[in-house]
Specification:
Order of helices and strands: EHEEEEHEHEEEHEEH
Number of strands: 11
Strand order of the largest sheet: 7-8-9-11-10
Shape: elongated
Helix content: 25-40%
Structural class: alpha+beta
Distance between the termini: 24 Å
Strand content: 25-35%
Largest sheet: 5 strands, antiparallel
């Protein structure tokens, strides 16, 4: 669950307004979940977030929520309730860390607000790569990467943030400046677009909406 906070930074001022309480540098927030059956305590220390869940009736710790081996329906519902709280805390109390390209922050902020999907950093070996996906079918509609320019344009130096998007007219788009064959994905169906203002924000958002629609079906 904690991967949803990667690339986000704790804002203590916002957290205080949200209801967090600070004690010797440790911020805590308490809430109930699942109609009051459980108590959730969220802690932020040195920018790192953790949480524990307790049975409201007995006061006992409910560690199953953190145990990957526990896959039952009930523990799944507890995890979903916790995740809902965490997403709300992230939205209210955390700021997006600075991206390499200014356009990246503008686009990712608008996309996450519009589609209510969050960037997910899934791979330890690729810590700068994140996905956006549908909640209902789990299909990706965008892959955000920080890569060498050379991966898109041979001989060009430096790093750039780019997003992979699905499209049904790839060959037609590739003649347009600022759109490249997809890096590390099926080049027949996907494109790579640098977030370096080569395309306007509105053009980027239109391409993302197209990808979102193409991946919507189950």
């Amino acid at each position: 669950m904690f991967e949803i906070f990667k690339a986000y930074q704790f804002n203590s001022k916002k957290a205080k307004e949200y209801g967090f309480v600070e004690n010797q540098g440790v911020w805590t927030h308490s809430s109930t979940i699942l109609q009051g059956d459980f108590h959730m305590m969220v802690t932020v220390e040195d920018g790192d977030l953790s949480f524990q869940v307790y049975d409201q009736e007995t006061g006992d710790l409910y560690p199953q929520v953190h145990m990957a081996s526990m896959r039952g329906t009930f523990v799944g519902s507890v995890r979903e309730a916790c995740l809902e709280v965490l997403y709300d805390i992230r939205k209210a109390c955390f700021d997006v860390q600075e991206f390499l390209c200014p356009q990246t922050k503008r686009i990712m902020t608008r996309v996450q607000e519009k589609y209510e999907n969050q960037l997910e950093y899934l791979w330890e070996k690729s810590p700068d790569t994140a996905i956006l996906r549908h909640e209902n079918n789990q299909k990706w509609y965008a892959v955000l990467m920080k890569i060498s320019w050379d991966k898109l344009e041979k001989g060009r130096e430096g790093l750039v943030e780019a997003v992979n998007l699905k499209h049904d007219q790839v060959s037609d788009l590739l003649v347009k400046k600022g759109i490249y064959p997809a890096f590390h994905m099926n080049k027949r169906y996907w494109i790579s677009v640098p977030l370096d203002d080569s395309l306007s924000d509105e053009e980027m958002l239109e391409l993302i909406e197209k990808s979102w629609n193409l991946t919507l079906k189950k």
